[in-house]
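Components:
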Amino acid sequence: MSTIVIRPKRRFSLSDLKDLVRYRELFYFFSWRDLKVRYKQTAIGVAWAVLQPVISMIVFSVFFGRLAGVPSDNVPYPIFVFAGLLFWQFFSDALNETANTLVSNKAIITKVYFPRLILPVSSVITKFVDFAIAAVVLIALMVYYGFKPEFGHLFVLPLLLIIAFMAALGLGLFLAALNVKYRDVRYALPFLIQLLLFITPVIYPASIAGKYSYLLALNPMTGVIQSARAVLLGTTVINWNLLGLSAGACLLLLLAGLWYFKRIERVFADII
Amino acid sequence: MKPIIEVRGLGKKFIITHNKGGYVALRDVVAGFFKNPFKALTRKKKDEFWALRDVSFSVERGEVIGVIGGNGAGKSTLLKILSQITPPSEGEVILRGRVGSLLEVGTGFHPELSGRENIFLNGAILGMKKREIERKFDEIVAFAGVERFLDTPVKHYSSGMYVRLAFSVAAHMEPDILLVDEVLAVGDAEFQKKCLGKMDEITRKSGRTIFFVSHNMGAIANLCTRCVFLKNGQVNMIGKTDDVIEAYLKDAAERSSNDIAARKDRQGNGDLRITDAYLVDTDGNRVNSAISGKSISIALDYECKLGVSLKDIIIGLGIATPGGEGVTLFHTEMTKATLGPVSGSGTFICSIDRLPLVPKTYIANARITADGEVVDYLQNLFPIDVLDGDFFGTGSSIRHSLVYMPHAWRDVKRDSHAS
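Structure:
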């Protein structure tokens, strides 16, 4: 029989983990709900998951690849930008969803107890599905342009996804908790994501920054996107140092996000 | 055996910030800093408000305990602490068993999802396992009576169906401790009975503990063995349900008789306000109670806003049981009484000849409109104590039901065997 003790202050404890395990099915149910509901009452449904990155790719290819002549590490610009967009969209969509997840689930939070952490994690999980769908488009592009990745390096891709996951969740947890108190987050976030896009080598190669490219390396998504291109398109050799640095930075980001989230998790219902 | 719920010295403090609007915007914090940097750095003096203080009690396994109290007495806060939605500021709670809360029916329902899907989603949010939901699925659907609409999105459900399905999911949760808040306020009377029956069945059969918060005295009296009466965030009384309800009603009566004028929970535009309500006997004296079968008047003191003159006054004065069931209505439109124009202050008096109510405590609600607009609407205006009287003049002591109706019996013979 379980005994629950409710006291005023409670730091992160083992019982929190036990709760997460006990409620583990909720991860699935929240993700499932978000997926089910997402494309309800839309005419083309899940095709949106393909259309969004494809249209972005076309627009970027025309304006940056063709008209502005942005270099693309000697691979065709469309596939260059799509490989970047694939990971970028996962990151930015996940971040956006996570940051708003507590506020949009306000009704549940103020009425029922469950480990709040499940909500943001589920919203990131949902984005894996869009990633998978868009990845099919990338495979098609690779076949079309005749790129053959080195099979020995493919194991890096899941690692990249984990890094992007940690980055989105870490920053997302922080913003989600902040959003509960300051609704400014909701308005600042689209702007922040747009800014991040410009300091991430999505539409241009990291080499464009020349001797300042180490500054770009401070952004964890730089390592992810550069390595993705290295693995899939052979643009550069894989920079293991950069990748290790990104992984470390993201882990720290995740821990910091978790810490902040847990710190005010208990009073969410009072201030939301 | 140790009690299943132990509450010790529980308190919950809220800090009241005097910000207009609800949320703190970063802008205000920044602006505040520039306006007065030193003030922003030093700690601001904030108002504290204790929603609960020094609350201690324990509940034994299998008990159905009711919590009653006026608005703002701390009932919901207590329930939110017990269900771990909000943390206490002091004290502790020990819950020895699985807790299920039924704080608001339909929480977590998604309008776009079908009934079937929502059963699973809501069940999971309430803490049920998928296998558990699958096992009880048919039972849940049958209790809610929505078999035909299982695959329809719940946004197309009638509100009754919606509530039935939501309650059904929650009722089948089978926790050791079930926390229930006002869920029965929704839904039709028949369904309320069904829910009460289900809750009764849950406790009787399986020895579950129910913690029940409600304004519905009828439901509390029907279900609960013991009751906690909260007042201003503190335990005023714990004991047998009947005793506690009585104490609560007395308290409510005392409170309402002296501060109707100060009540804030009124609706209407406020051009005219009821400042007091009381009973008056045939000699015009203020009395504390009415007597069955005797004449009585209900007086409503009013005050108009300065400089306001109102005509076409319509008053509806409803009499209900403490459980909220309507008993009768005194309405100016029924008697075609013309009241007004009024200005300043005065008293509306409604006289009743031979009061046909059974001895009991009733609650009066009043709604006043002037020129077609609601000016004041107060629920639970004041309690009316009706004492035993000889309504039929026969000395009968039958007190069933609520209303005495003058009547006569006779026998019409068709065929007699006697002659």
